[in-house]
Amino acid sequence: MQPSDYSMQSAVDLGARKAALEREAKRQAEASSGNANPYAVDITEENFQQEVLERSMNAPVVLAVLQSRSEQSDQVERALDRLAVEAGGQWAVAKVDVQASPQIAQAMRVQAVPTVAMVIGGQVVPGPGGPATYDQLRDWLSQIFDGLRQQGVLPQEYSGLGEPQEGGEEPQGAGGEQSAADVEAQEALQRGDFEAAEAVYAKAVEENPKDEEAKLKLAHIRLVGRVRLLDANERRQAAADNPEDVQAQIDVADIDMYGGKIEDAFDRLVATVRRTSEDDRDRARQHLLSLFDVLPPGDPRVGKARRALTSALF
């Protein structure tokens, strides 16, 4: 299976604002409920080059062309979100709303919506078009990753898939059975009470320190709780204007982490550790360590960042 070359010219369709706003509202609702996929990003003509083509030079990107208020698109989107979370961010999900960004679908010559494709090294591997289940998408990804490993595009140790979550076809939060802790946390999040939701998972971790799922959810709740109140543009500008502003660097690292730019977040905080000292240095270090908890144990990016942190400290 050989990837095909792909390129497109950037354009902005001002007539698609309504669809774009609807998708943004959906993303905000997912974030406030604690069900957001931290490894997903909404794609427009403006960020396609950076978030899809450039990002794919470092890690695979699954490009999903979707349509608002479509049951089939919702099914595919939920399945991809679940698979990405299970994989611990080994690849990102780039979501294109065909109504908000029709030029992308036209450039890709999309024949059906939803459509899924893999982008790796700036090239596209076509995927299924039309409705697809979690199991079908998992099988497709497995075949793609196997082929890319055989071609030497991906390293042999790259798995691309995590352990399947229990609960059948639907992920938790979309009709699957939830634990008592999940139900209690969800109720708190629906009230907008992030502190209560955090306390639920903190208690679960205290009662069972080996509960890796609770640890991940606790770290994610804390991340979403911080990011939801930030003005991303203002924080990025503050960090650019004053590299010594540790809080601004921490905030941007959180924003990047939430947006799936894992290595960017880690690199920013490692750089902050290098150029600061004493209390500021310790704040940046401690926050970097807390972000490691957002990823599953054994994630290679954590190991790489730990080595970079050790180098920065000593």
Please tell me how large the radius of gyration is: 19 Å
What is the percent of helical residues? 40-55%
Structural class: alpha/beta
* Envelope shape: globular
**What is the helix/strand order?**
EHEHEHEHEEHHHHHHHHH
User: What are the segments in which pLDDT stays under 50 over at least 5 consecutive residues?
Assistant: 4-21, 167-176
Task: Please state how the strands of the largest beta sheet are arranged side by side.
Answer: 1-6-5-3-4-2
Strand content: 5-15%
Number of helices: 13
Question: Briefly, what CATH class of the largest domain?
Answer: Alpha Beta
The total number of structural domains is 3
Biggest beta sheet summary: 6 strands, mixed
Predict the CATH topology of the largest domain.
Answer: Glutaredoxin
The CATH superfamily of the largest domain is known as: Glutaredoxin
Terminal CA distance: 46 Å
Q: Average pLDDT, to the nearest integer?
A: 81
